[in-house]
Amino acid sequence: MAQEKPNPKNLKRPNKQTGEQNQSKAAKQAANPKKQEKQVKEKPVVEKQGKKGLKKIQNKKPNQEKEKQVDEQKQIQQEEKQAQSEKKPDENLQNLEVSNNQYYDSSDDTDDEIITARIGKVPWKWYDNYKHFGYDAELKKIVKPAQMDKIDEFLKKAENPDWWRTIRDELNQEDVKLTDEQLFVIKRLMAGKFASKKIQDTDYTVEYEYNDPFPMDGRQQPKRRFQPSKWERMMVNKIVDGIKRGTIVLDQDKEEDEEEELFDLWGANQEDDLQKKMPQSISAPKMKLPTNAESYNPPEEYLMSKKELKEWKDTDPEDREHNFIPQKYDCLRHVEFYDQLIKERFERCLDLYLCPRTRKKKLDIDPESLIPKLPKPEELRPYPTTLQIQYIGHKSRVRGISCLSNGQYLASVDEKGEIIVWEVSTSRIVWRYQVEQIAYQISFTSDGLLCVTSDTNLYIFNIKRILNKQQFEKNEGMLVQSKSNNTIEYNQKFKWEYTLPEEDSTTKDNGLRIKIQMNDQLKSLSVHKNGDYICTVAPSAEKKNESVIVHCISKGLSSQPFNKTKGIVEKVIFHHKKPVIFILTRKHCFVYNLQKQANIKKLLTGAQYNSSIDLHPYGDNLIIGTYDKKVLWFDLDLQSTPYKNLRYHEKAVRNVKFHQKYPLMASCSDDGQINILHAKVHTDMMENALILPVKMLKGHTIRQDLGVLDIQFHPVQPWIFSAGADHRIFLWT
């Protein structure tokens, strides 16, 4: 038979892919020589012809040879499949090639994207409590598959060799196995390449710069165009800093409960979007409603008399209670036209147009949080509360009182110069003495000597009736020694007169021992804690250096520590432990060191007239009373201004005192009141003093605008003595 020529229409030109496939087949045949021999025998005469041409040539061979070739081809295909199955998945991906007729290349087939559950974008959590997870196209429920636990999933992964290429289709609730072609595409995309091999990485260009073909000038580009942006770097650094500090959280799943906004459907006050963007409007204040005076038939008490009408016309329009005259009519039709109507409407329009409106913000603060937590007065006991004893015997105003160190006797002086010593428990008069002039102040020393200032004289008494024998003899010996030491010429300015028992027997009963005469009138005195030093104050001294004088009893010496004082001195007190003296002038208080002869501190009271001063037993706090109705508390370790400014008296403060044993403070005033305060000072420097008013004592009567003139705490008990302008002395317990 003549050989048939191949049809040129059936011949196809081999493309690039078929050439590559032929090269791969040649490499496989070289690796397997047996297969190569078989393929040599089976090689057709025409190699470059198509499949149809080969079939026509092979059909011309005998049937036996044809069957033999078919068997050999089947055997070769089985061996190739077995070899491919033995390869690893990664090797399959490396040898996988994508042909030109893939679905992503030219097909619109979407069979792999069929969705059975037609639920749209409804959240899956809506079906958590149901046995189905949606409906299909025929509106039938799609039953959920059996859920696997962690153990079942682990066993499935261990038994299934293709678990690494299986993904979960949540929408259809089924597992999908990725094909080799899909894995190949995924691998290329993860490597940053195109899915198809037809498109190369160099098949496109991106124009990063735009060159103007007709530039307006020929300037070179600035350097900043070729450098990283400074502001972008700052913005990135800010974002990085926020991520480090935790203020910016990345990839945070924010699950917000979407609540339906309920509103009044038929409401007329619904704000639109434009109104929300505008500033908040403030409604105009409403006018005052008319009162009974504006009635056409007002009551009789609202009608003005002739006197009231005249006063109304004489007052300014701004100060009038009403801007009209109330009138009475029989009926409403008789009411005349209101002549001020247009004026009032015009002023109202001006107020609405010109007056600015503001909305006052009210502070939502709990009032109890502003009040400090303080202890109850019952917890701060003991302190004096009731009047216990009255000491009646003076015939004029009692100017000063003082209590003996043991608290058994009380001494007092009045304006007529009468000195009385009382027994505290019985109010019995133990001793009495009369001086020539008015007496201002009295004080006991720690040794039991009684000191009294009267006019220009300082009297010192040693009273035998109120002292024990040992203390009395000790004081007598000290006075004898003082007389022997009083030979200094400096004391010629201040005359010391001694009246000892040996010289005059009558003075022994009176108790007067020393009388010191000075040039100016003495108003106050202060005794040191050791009982040997006495300081007297003469505010009206002609010489500035004689306003403050310090007397030493044991040495019989009077000295002038200051050459000049700043201002008029009112009071002077000693420090309990340090060589320091406090000088109170009318407007200031000076702290003076006697050892260094220097002024340490100046306390600014801010008052016009200071009256009294006292020092706390610890020596770190000071109180000053003023005629300006104020009590000033100073902390000497802090600033030179008052730590507390207490103002609870209605009139001038006469005296202030600290208790030497209990945390109590008291002040008296011309309003006839004695205020008791709890004044606790902590030894710890980190805590401030606690000052609380606990009791107000009233009992003295006011005479000629004078009330309580002096107070004195009991040295042992939480009691207080008070002396008033009503000639009486009270004991409060």
From TrEMBL:
**Positions of the WD repeats?**
391-432, 708-733
Lineage, top-rank taxon, reads Eukaryota
The subcellular localization recorded is: Nucleus, Nucleolus; Nucleus, Nucleoplasm
Q: Which residues form the signal peptide?
A: none
**Keyword Chloroplast among UniProt keywords:** no
Q: Which UniProt keywords apply?
A: Nucleus, Repeat, Ribosome biogenesis, rRNA processing, WD repeat
Biased composition range(s): Basic and acidic residues: 34-50, 62-91
Where would you say this protein principally sits, based on its record?
nucleus
The GO annotation for biological process reads: maturation of 5.8S rRNA from tricistronic rRNA transcript (SSU-rRNA, 5.8S rRNA, LSU-rRNA); maturation of LSU-rRNA from tricistronic rRNA transcript (SSU-rRNA, 5.8S rRNA, LSU-rRNA)
Q: Which intervals carry biased composition (Polar residues)?
A: 92-102
Classification via SUPFAM superfamilies: WD40 repeat-like
What the protein does comes down to:
Required for maturation of ribosomal RNAs and formation of the large ribosomal subunit.
Q: What name does UniProt use for this protein? A: Ribosome biogenesis protein BOP1 homolog
Biological source species: Pseudocohnilembus persalinus (Ciliate)
